Structure formats: structure tokens, C-alpha cells
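Section 3.1: Structural characterization of target chains.
Under the original work plan, the team committed to producing a structural model for every single-chain target entering the pipeline before any wet-lab resources were allocated. The record below documents one such target. The sequence was received from the expression subgroup and is listed exactly as submitted; it comprises 257 residues.
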Amino acid sequence: MHSRAEQLEALSRLLTIMDELREKCPWDQKQTFESLRHLTIEETYELADAILKGDRDEIKKELGDVLLHICFYAKIGSETNDFDIADVAHAICDKLISRHPHIYGDVTVKDEEEVKRNWEQLKLKEGKSSVLEGVPNGLPALVKAYRIQDKVKGVGFDWERPEQVWDKVQEELAEFQKEVQDKNQAQMEAEFGDVLFSLINYARFLNINPEDALERTNQKFTKRFQYLESKAKEINKPLSEMTLAEMDVFWEEAKKL
């Protein structure tokens, strides 16, 4: 691993390159906070994919892309005299010190859960009107539900045991099924949302990240279906002309693989 001096030198090199690109490259010159936003989101998802795959080399590359975006935003901020990379770094350092009084102060904590509870209380003292202010509106719904539940847990609003949450799942499923039977479309959607929310809550109690679990299932399904497609090509028969029974033979083969 590199020394601290070497790490700082590498960061300085990146900042210098960013300066040069902003000065000389037509594409980089035209970028704004707004134009970079969707690219940053894309890079974040690519990093998340690499993490799920466990590909350390790819994680390193994607972290570099995210770091580039941070430097890019800081460079644009410096051009308008609003902030630069030092302001960004000092802001997060100050926040970390403030939010960790058990490290930088005289507060004593017994475990991770107490640290999280203190974190939420400190945020309220800093002027937040709600513990849910830290949950971005733009998050995908599944991720947002998990973060909402985790946030309110930090102030003690939570179930006590997993069994209670599972009972809630069963209750919501029964309510959903009733609306299905009544063919009430609007209520079906509302109750289905409740089912998903309660399942996410149950996953949280089992220390399962529902977003990661669902994405792994997406990847598993994709691999199996692509195997099915490849087998259909081998026998020169379009999927649309195969029966479900024929497709199921290849699907079972994919599962064994």
C-alpha cells in the first residue's frame, strides 16, 4: 500500500489534471453541475454493480470515476468562488468529528446501535426538522423504504422482534388478497405497496439488504434466461415458437449450472 505522502501526491496529480482539462478540453469546459448529474448517478450504479460482483479491480476503477466527479464539481465550485476541494474535505471532516463525540469528545457508547441513535439525535440538534430529511427524494423506492425504516429506527421507532414484523407481513398479504378478490385496482396497488414495505422491514430485521438481494436475483434470472436463449439458437427454434414445457427443460439446466 502507498504511504500517506504518496496518497496525497496522487490526489494532487488528479486535481492538476482536472485543472488542465477544464482549461484546455472543449468537452470538459462545457460541463456544469446539471450536465454532470446524470453521469454521476450512472457512475455510482456502476460502482454498486462492481461491489455486488466482488470484483476488487473493477471497484478500484469505478471509485476513480466517482472521485473524478467529486473533483469536477469542486473545480466548478471554485470557478464561481463558492467552494473548492478543500472546503469539501473540511466540511466532511467537521461533520465526522461533530457526529462522533464518542471518539472526539467525552461521550461513551456501548455498541453500533447506540452510535446510530446518537447520530440521528445530533442531526436534529444541528437544525434538521425531521430524521427523514436525510433520505433523498430521488432514491429508488425500494432503497428509500429501507433508508426510511433505518432512519426511524435510530430514534427508537421500530419493532422489537422479527416475529412481530413477520406477523405484519402476513397481515398485509391478507389485506392485499382481499383487494385482489374485490378487484379494486387502486386499493390493490396501495396494499401491494404495504406488502413490499413490510417485507423490506422484515429483511432489515434479518440483516438482509433488500436492494442487494433483489439485484442478485435479477442477475441470476438474466443469466438463466440468456442460457435459455442460447439453447434456443442451438436448436434453431425461436423462443416464441417453444412451449413452456420445452423452455422449462433448458431453464432447469441453467439452474443446475
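The chain is about 75% helix and 0% strand.
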